[in-house]
Amino acid sequence: MTFGPHQVKFSGHLREKLIVLRTAARALGEFGRLARSMIAIDENLIACPTTWGDPLKHLDEWKVTLYHRIFDELHVEYSVHDTERIVWIATIKPIFNHPLRQLTDSED
């Protein structure tokens, strides 16, 4: 098991989704909440990704463990490499009653 600090990475596709969320958050007056949540998520994934989330499964061939966590009505899915200090964020998705959930409902 590795401990922080870790490097957090994500795909260009997720980057595009986060831009859409950020734009919508500004329009709905929720930018401050989203920004605070994203900072907290980033800080926790850098410092303690293996204890912050709940493990889902280990992928031996990729040498990663998949995790998820619900934080401020955002579902975060990510993987942590077994030996490298790298965290890959797969998704950050508004759920429950989050004001930005309407943006992701069509993806389900």
Helix and strand arrangement:
Elements: E1 7-10, H1 12-28, H2 31-47, H3 49-52, E2 54-59, E3 64-71, E4 74-81, E5 86-94
Parallel strand pairs: 1-5
Antiparallel strand pairs: 2-3, 3-4, 4-5
User: Largest beta sheet: what is the strand line-up?
Assistant: 1-5-4-3-2
Distance between the termini: 33 Å
CATH domain topology: YaeB-like fold
Low-confidence stretches: none
Q: Quick one: overall form?
A: elongated
Radius of gyration: 14 Å
What is the tally of helical segments? 3
Protein described:
The chain has one domain: 2-Layer Sandwich (YaeB-like fold), CATH 3.30.2310.20. It is elongated and about 40 Å long. The protein contains 3 helices and 5 strands. The chain has helices spanning 12-28, 31-47, 49-52; strands at 7-10, 54-59, 64-71, 74-81, 86-94. The chain has a 5-stranded mixed beta sheet with strand order 1-5-4-3-2. The termini are far apart. The model has no long low-confidence stretch (mean pLDDT 92). 35% of the residues lie in helices and 32% in strands. The longest helix has 17 residues, at 12-28. The protein is of the alpha+beta class.
Can I get a quick summary?
The chain is α+β, with helices and mostly antiparallel strands and 108 residues long. The chain is built from three helices and five strands, in the order E-H-H-H-E-E-E-E.
